[in-house]
Amino acid sequence: MRMSMLLAPTLREVPAEAEIASHKLMLRAGLMRKAAAGIYTYLPLGYRTLQKIEAIIREEMNAADGQEVLLPILQPAELWHESNRWDDYGEEMFKLKDRNGRQFCLGPTHEEIITALVRTEIRSYRQLPLLLYQIQNKYRDEIRPRFGIMRGREFIMKDLYSFDRDAQGLDKNYWKMYHAYERVFARCGLKTRPVEADPGAIGGNMTHEFMALAEAGEAEIVYCSHCDYAANVEKAQSVISSGKKTGVLEGLAKVSTPNIRTVEELGEFLGRPASDMIKTMLYHNSDMVVAALVRGDHAVNDIKLARAVGVMELELADQATIEEVTGAPMGFAGPVGLKGCRIIADPTVMEMENAISGGNAVDVHMTGVNPGRDFKPDLVIDIRTAQPGDSCPCGQGTLIGARGIEVGQVFKLGTKYSQALGATFLDEAGEENLLIMGCYGIGVTRTMAAVVEQCHDDDGIIWPMSLAPYHVIVVPINYRDESQKAVVDALYEDLTMAGIEVVLDDRNERPGVKFKDADLIGFPIRITVGPRTLENKEAEVRLRSTGEEYVIPLSEVVTNAKERIRRAIEAELPDSRRGR
RNA sequence: CGGGGUAUGGCGCAGUUUGGUAGCGCGCUUCGUUCGGGACGAAGAGGCCCUCGGUUCGAAUCCGAGUACCCCGACCA
User: Fold this and answer.
1) Cβ of A92 < 7 Å from strand B?
2) Among chain A residues 60 through 89, which have CB within 7 angstroms of nucleic chain B?
3) Per-residue confidence at A576, pLDDT binned at 50, 70, 90?
4) Is the interface score ipTM higher than 0.90?
5) If you count Cβ atoms within 10 Å of the first and of the last residue's Cβ in chain A, which end, N or C, has fewer?
6) Based on the domain organization, do A146 and A289 belong to the same domain?
7) Domain boundary residue among A380, A409, A443?
């Protein structure tokens, strides 16, 4: 491709809308442009990279016996009513009507449509297992689109669905996909970490998220310094060393604490650490109120709490509910004498002695609170949010905190959708059984953003060889110089003939401009031809990733580049797949 | 949906407080001089100042309504 022909509108200045590095760079390097909030047009360079990511995914999915299909994006409402997600998905779904008033949605995901397909096509255990996947646009009317392509309303996703006859089959496919994902992301040059996660609203019972480590990531994770344990903080377990037990129990006493509402204020007022306090948080949903008890220096994990009481969602109670249940305004809730709600305590609370808590009255707290003696929770279960510095459940290591971009997720769905939509098969005995499903997603467009987030410097993007829109850019210092033009045109021809993806910067620009653009776009290999080296029939090769620069004879440029590209792509392959 | 902010040429911004009919930098076009890390000079093109309504002799500027976009929170690949 000649640069003069290429639509690669690089920007010197950062558009005001961009916040994080990947967003800024994707706009600046001319990979994409915004069409509306969370909706983007992909320009030639961006689309080439996207296609490369898709190609890698296809290879790995096919290698794992996946079969690609193309599913409708415009989907009938009936199917979503069957799974009950027309309402459950709610506002986040783009809904529309046809001219006859029939309702449709733009698919935010494809469980319904694929299950509907499979229920009519699969009858026998002989047809299982079945792995189908698609790479397509998905639509979610996000509450808040953000960070460019990272959280868009239209985005490209790969989803693979597995159908098995039993749990063993599902387990096998689950781990097959897990390992396929490790390969996909490794080949994309992305540093990812699989973490245990909460299954959330999609349903199912086991899931790992693949997190691309990045400061800009929206997810918080912890991982162990010693073992392989890693989890989303929504789900993470941890062990916390309990204080020494004295066995000397004080009596329960009320103290006056005028206008003291927060743990910090109380600690200061009484001269006691937050870890001596029992924090009582009230949560509710439409049919219950729950009091959650954690130590003062801990945080309630509302997802764990919701799981503990067996509901999908709980939110912090409002002032009115708090007053109704505790008889006091916010800030004075405590477990002693609390009635009218379920009390859930974290195990660490049960180990406390002579604790401090709210007194369920205005300006009153209690001291000498001893769990078990002064109150009895309805349930004792882990509901605290794990924090960096906690001990790992393995008992050996310490949890380390990090942020990540969720680029993929593998899920054991079980029978949620096959049940809802009636997808069954007959086994050897002629018995009808529900299909056991798994689903495995990769955010394709998000992966591109994550790669840029991880692979850039002050000058621009540093594409991994496997994803670079073009491998090589040839830069003549002055294209109007006849001798340079001749050399560079020939070089371009030779590189192209050798099957190398190459751009020739034939623009009438000063060298500095071309270098800046080359760095910004992130071509892995730059070949410069100018008077300095031309007299010796040489060219200069510069590597974007390291800044390394060397001069070689013109005659060796093609083989040198070819070899370098081959080796770079191979280096990104995980060991198990090399030389496949 | 709650809270905060912005809207002026392709991009980044000033002008709005104190109404008088729009300006700067970058980019773009042409010519010349340049040519190894975003050159210089000269001459140009390009703007219903987000929309609608109001106040006024006169509105980018004041008032009202609406829309879009961005940031912070709950949702999620």
Assistant:
1) yes
2) none
3) low
4) yes
5) C
6) no
7) A380
CA A442 – C1' B26 distance (Å)? Answer: 39
Please identify residues in chain A, positions 392-421, with a C-beta within 7 angstroms of any atom of strand B: 406-409
- Beta-strand pair A192-196/A379-380: unpaired
Spatial contact of A220 and A232, defined as CB atoms under 8 Å apart: yes
Q: A241-245, A326-330, A380-384, A519-523: lowest mean pLDDT where?
A: A241-245
> Residue A218: its pLDDT value, please?
87
Using the CA of A148, give the nucleotide whose C1' is nearest. B70
**For chain A, how many structural domains are there in total?**
3
Instruction: Give the distance, in angstroms, between residue A164 CA and nucleotide B5 C1'.
Output: 52
Q: A107 and A69, same structural domain? A: yes
Spatial strand order of the sheet with A74-76 comes to: A74-76, A103-106, A94-97
Half-sphere exposure of A161 (CA within 13 A, CB side): 24
d(CA A368, CA A352) in angstroms, rounded, equals 10
In which residue are the tokens 């045109």 written? A489
Span A292-312, pLDDT tens digits: 999 988 888 888 888 888 777
CATH code of the domain covering residue A534: 3.40.50.800
Strand B contacts (CB < 7 A) among A residues 218-237? 218-219
* Distance between the alpha carbon (CA) of A540 and the C1' atom of B73, Å: 52
Same domain, A312 and A172: no
- For residues A154 and A221, membership in a common domain is answered with yes
**Model confidence pLDDT, tens digit, residues A108-164:** 999 999 999 999 999 999 999 999 999 999 999 988 888 899 999 999 999 999 999
CA distances from A90 to A77, A93, A387 (A): 12, 6, 32
A486/A480 Cα distance (integer angstroms):
10
Q: Which domain holds residue A226?
A: 21-236+401-453
What CA–CA distance (Å, rounded) separates A166 from A175? 15
Report CA(A152)–C1'(B70) in Å, whole number.
Answer: 15
Please provide the DSSP assignment of A336-371 as one string: TT--SSEEEE-HHHHT--SEEEEEEETTEEEEEE-B
